[in-house]
Amino acid sequence: MSAHPDPDDLGPVDVAVVAIRGDVTVGVAQALARLHRDGVVRVLDLAVIRKADDGTPAYLEVDEAGLGDAFAWLGDEELDLLSDEDLAAVGEGVEPGSSGLVVVWENAWARDLAVALRAEHGSLVMHERVPRETVVAALAALDD
Q1: Phi, then psi, of 90 in degrees rounded to 5
Q2: Closest by Cα among 33, 34, 59 to 47
Q3: SS3 state at 62
Q4: Of 35, 54, 60, 97, which residue is the least packed, with the fewest Cβ within 10 Å?
Q5: Would 131 be classed as within a structural domain?
Q6: For residues 92 and 88, what is the distance between their CA atoms, to the nearest angstrom?
Q7: What is the number of structural domains in the chain?
């Protein structure tokens, strides 16, 4: 019997990389915990990348980053989906003196719809995130 979830029972899975000047904070961990607790997302894996001022990267689990208590809500749910190669590729984009939080999450809010669509042999044919700047401009245009 497998210890990991059945892919047919998952909602869409995304990888998000958040760049933070300095270190990842407890506040970020708490915000992610709320999303997880409220069933919006289910965190499947996460890691921290710290890049020293000289550009030297360090790839850390949350315990190694001093954030074990802040991410204790994860328990043993992590699946260790991120490879060393994944983290090295992401690390290229992290600026010196900054950190990156790499999160693999299931969009739990969409799980039921995804399962129903798969049962009907449906598939997603388009998905695009609208950049924040575009939303700001569109809302500002409403005032004109």
Answers
A1: -65, -40
A2: 59
A3: coil
A4: 54
A5: no
A6: 6
A7: 1
